[in-house]
Amino acid sequence: MNYLLPTATATDEKQRNAQVAVLPIGSFEQHGSYLPLITDTVIASIIAKEVAKTYSLLELPPITISCSHEHNAWPGTVSISARTLFAVVDDVADSARRSGVSALVLVNGHGGNYVLSNIVQEANSQDNRMALFPSGQDWKDARAAACLETTMHEDMHAGELETSILLYACPELVGDGYETADWTANDRRHLLVQGMAAYTSSGVIGRPSLGSADKGKAILASLVHGFADVLRVIKA
Known about the structure:
single chain; alpha/beta; Rossmann fold; 4-stranded parallel β-sheet; 8 helices
């Protein structure tokens, strides 16, 4: 499970003396029949690991359960409240500061964690440096760099993007059936009220059949490159 947990020692971190930490935040929710419940956690951890390695940052272990209430109709999905997620992130940020870290980047793998934007805004209003990554624009740039055929809106869940990242980084987690699981539901205006089950019976909204390892590699490369701008801003 080396794509989930950092293995550095205290001595390693003393020598690194990182001023910025990255905290991956995933979820434990359904991703159709071919991707695991830990998909978002794996993706957030992979991104965090790559940027930490590239920019010599402190890589923290992931938060593995978050706000997945829209997926409650499927077995296995487990959530915590937005207020609990807020409290956990706030505690982690406070502890990291006391350990000498001057800035924290939340690497979010689950689109339903809306509260993270509020956490970051509030932290910076109190002069506690924090950023949220990837932004919507970062994902758009990564999609363009990888020549994905779907849009962010069309490819909402367990689709081309998520399947591609896992096919590249940990193909052993991708099960059979993604090639025939495409499902689109572009009008989802009542998602917050009705949840995902109102728009998909399989749990999929997107086109996983278009996923490939090459696209996953390009997505990650674009995100790692784009992270440099986050560091520039957060250290300013």
